[in-house]
Amino acid sequence: MTNHQSLITNHQEYLKHQKWMNHALELAQVAGDAGEVPVGAVIVDAADNLIATGENRKERDQDPTGHAEIMAIRAASQSLQNWRLDKYTLYVTLEPCPMCAGAIVHARLATLVYGVDDTKTGAIRTVINIPNSPASNHPLQVVGGILESACRHQLQTWFTTKRQQ
Predict the structure, then answer these.
(1) Does residue 100 have a known ligand-binding role?
(2) What contacts 98, CB < 8 A, 6 or more positions away?
(3) Domain map (residue ranges) of the chain
(4) What per-residue string of b and e applies to 7-27 under the rule 16 or more CB within 10 Å gives b?
(5) Would you say 73 and 112 are in contact if contact means Cβ atoms under 8 Å apart?
(6) Strands 111-116 and 40-44
(7) Which CATH architecture has domain 1-164?
């Protein structure tokens, strides 16, 4: 178990995290097949119900904010008619960037679960730590490393294929 996974309290919780990360990986595959960097995100409630999904859409929408996390947060806020998502968990295959970390904090999400660290722009734990910085006005529980190998493999395979084209 890595440091990031220390918040997992039991096997059932880990299985739940795996289930939703697998769903996020499926969304990431859709994004990758559409020419986007393969990142997927889902938001679930405390009763384990799916609230919203998102996948990278920067290229398709010509929108620099079209990251999977932003798409999922927008969809959840619209569906719930509330921008405060303080009772919800966001699952995403890649550690969020500074923009997405800021949106996660501002949406007041309760928990973030992510797959693989982003050594270039990770803004949760790897490069910078926005949730624990003085700029954050909301506590965020973070669990990293869920299905880390699968998330890393998906991204590496996509980038390798892109470079070969």
Answers:
(1) yes
(2) 121, 123, 128, 130
(3) 1-164
(4) ebeeeeeeebbeebbbbbbeb
(5) no
(6) unpaired
(7) 3-Layer(aba) Sandwich (3.40)
Give every strand in the sheet of 40-44, ordered side by side. Answer: 50-55, 40-44, 89-94, 111-116, 141-144
Q: At which residue do the structure tokens 């590496």 appear?
A: 156
Read off the pLDDT of residues 59-87 as tens digits, 9 standing for 90 and up. 999 999 999 999 999 999 999 999 999 99
Q: Write out the two tokens for 16.
A: 């739940």
Phi, psi of 82 (to 5 degrees): -160, 130
| 17 among annotated binding-site residues | no
Whether the per-residue pLDDT at 91 is higher than 90: the answer is yes
* Catalytic residue set: 69
